[in-house]
Amino acid sequence: MNFLQQNLIYFIPLFGLVGILVMAFQSAWVTRQEAGDKNMSELAGYIADGAMAFLKAEWKVLSYFVIIAGILLAWSGTLTGSAANPIHSSPIIAVAFLIGAVFSALAGYLGMRIATKANVRTTQAARTSLAQALKVSFRGGTVMGFGVAGLAILGLGTLFIILYHTFVHPGSPESSAELKKTIEVLAGFSLGAESIALFARVGGGIYTKAADVGADLVGKVEAGIPEDDVRNPATIADNVGDNVGDVAGMGADLFGSYVATILATMVLGQEIVSEDLFGGMAPVLLPMLIAGLGLIFSIVASLFVKINKETDSVQSALNIGNWLSIILTAIASYFAVRWLLPPVMSIRGFEFTQLSVYYAILIGLAVGTLMSLITEYYTAMGNRPVNSIIQQSSTGHATNIIGGLSVGMESTVLPILVLAAGIYASYYFAGFYGVAIAAAGMMATTAMQLAIDAFGPIADNAGGIAEMSGLPKEVRERTDMLDAVGNTTAATGKGFAIASAALTSLALFAAFAGISGITSIDIYKANVLAGLFVGGMIPFIFSSLCIAAVGRAAMAMVQEVRRQFKEIPGIMEYKAKPEYEKCVAISTEASIREMMLPGAIALIVPIIVGFTFGPEVLGGLLAGVTVSGVLMGIFQSNAGGAWDNAKKSFEKGVMIEGKMEYKGSDPHKASVTGDTVGDPFKDTSGPSMNILIKLMSIVSLIIAPHIAVGISNPGTTEIRKEIQISKSTDSKGKIKIDTVKNVTDTLIHP
């Protein structure tokens, strides 16, 4: 064994450290760019202050939750179970939970902090050229991408090293149980990350869409002023929302997904029978190594995202970076698998080879790529789905809504078929470990995916600042070009996130089944079938609560904007400044208040069902939540994205029945209504689905040792036959079998 093999476990956190160092370099570069004139800096300051006010209010509420949850987890870690059904946990799980929560919040904060600096600098850069504007906005996005991936790998890798040395004694007869305990405690890190992600995503989504809907309904529809007009009292809250929802929320979201995917693969990896050079730990280390390699190659690929001329395609530049990161990761994964894994392994009786694992990784990369391409087709301007909504806008608001709903529902077909094929193929190659490592392969390029995704809200804010500052037309045209691409990248990012959530949840589900002691879920049992139906219902009530929360907050925003237009004379003539801070306060208070109930559903329901009805019923619940949640997430995100780009298509003009229609026309007004309906779909409830299904699976995994099937609670059984053989020797010294007797038929409970 060479030096690298002996110390691989210590090299993994170094990948994360590299990501954080590059993030710091990119952040410093963005900060050094020009921030424009005094008016631009003042507007950017309003946005930054509003975003920080929201985060402080959110963190204050979440700190109470984190403390209470940490105490409960510490108590649960003191339980040891019985000799027949031991619980492999420790009070240290509370520490892992706290670290995961802090890192998740930090990931969102770092991305949002640089986004509120990059927005105004992108606006200033757009006064020079489109190429410079892309450079500033994308580098701002890479801060989020590299920061999230770097924190995840550094945090997870370092914590694993500490827990491993705390619990595992190599060579001990109990080393297998000790490793199981290590990973069970490590699951607390993922629980903390996903918990914060859910509240950040739901709270940020409610904030941004309450402001957006209020600004649109009163500003654009009633007052007839542009979306980001400085006279609109809700415009600052709207731009703040882009940061707290699409930057901080998305950052925490993908941080949680990244960690959950690696963890699920590690949980299944410790079950694998593997004769390798790492003491049987190669399948556990592989997902962390692939994540680290993916981060490095995302950094390399980011250097190729650039354009030279005004006519160059921004989308093509981003695609080059994305494809390069995927291809490099795919190549490196081959050598990592061949170097790390033994030729043959097995899990739960399923035998597979190292090449089978590599094929599963390729399937994961392919599934993520196809999901992004399909999402882009259904949401990008110029394609049939968006054009169909545009054409239906000509006959009014109702037909626009019908068209958007139809596109959203249709858009679930191809993604589900791709997911189904990916699950089947990855399982065929390497069992449930194949499904998990496919998800890890898909998430390996998260740094690049998130950089592209975070670029969108930065460009959106840049356009808003350009509009509010009254900059020349060509500046707004450049920011609009970036914003239009950003809308598509945001939609594809959500498609990527929901695909990763589906594979990750299935892997977490398999891990839950192993730890809880169930081998199958029998839907012929009435209680299991009931759990399946209840699970299918949860994404609907979750979505209802999120959308209703946006509606209530938007109503308050509309009333406030109308009040200011009415009671503050001179706003429309630019003689008086609107009270932006009051609209910011409305969104902040509403989002903090309204995010609690949806979050409680995800955390409490698995605990109630698991402890009341047992692991098999909880398994039925998880199956229902996963299938329903994936469908709802795809439908809502794609419908909202298509409505949004249908509305934006009118800015350059669209041909409807032989006539060009522009902003302000009746079809455009119908498209604004559709976009308003789609806003909470695509930015609140839709993207929250992937966190919902993962968080419920992680909670179930955490409680699995406490509800596991044991001797006192028999579940599935197997029959073990013990055979007694009597033998003797004949006159020539040969062994002769005299009797074969069946001694016992013993029922063994798992």
Automatic annotation (TrEMBL):
Catalysed conversion reaction: Na(+)(in) + diphosphate + H2O = Na(+)(out) + 2 phosphate + H(+)
Molecular-function GO term, any one: inorganic diphosphate phosphatase activity
Cofactor(s) it depends on: Mg(2+)
Free-text activity regulation comment from the record: Requires K(+) for maximal activity.
Keyword Transmembrane helix: yes
Site positions (Determinant of potassium dependence): 490
Domain of life, per lineage: Bacteria
GO terms, biological process: sodium ion transport
EC top class, as a word: translocase
KW Transmembrane helix (keyword) present: yes
Membrane-spanning intervals of the chain: 12-31, 61-80, 92-112, 143-167, 284-305, 317-337, 357-380, 401-424, 430-452, 496-518, 530-554, 595-614, 691-711
Gene: hppA
Keywords, alphabetical: Cell membrane, Ion transport, Magnesium, Membrane, Potassium, Sodium, Sodium transport, Translocase, Transmembrane, Transmembrane helix, Transport
Record note on quaternary structure: Homodimer.
UniProt similarity note: Belongs to the H(+)-translocating pyrophosphatase (TC 3.A.10) family. K(+)-stimulated subfamily.
GO cellular component, one term: endomembrane system
Localization per record: Cell membrane; Endomembrane system
Annotated source species: Pedobacter cryoconitis
Record's bilayer topology term: Multi-pass membrane protein
Protein name from the UniProt record: Putative K(+)-stimulated pyrophosphate-energized sodium pump
UniProt main location, coarse: membrane
Function: Sodium pump that utilizes the energy of pyrophosphate hydrolysis as the driving force for Na(+) movement across the membrane.
EC number: 7.2.3.1
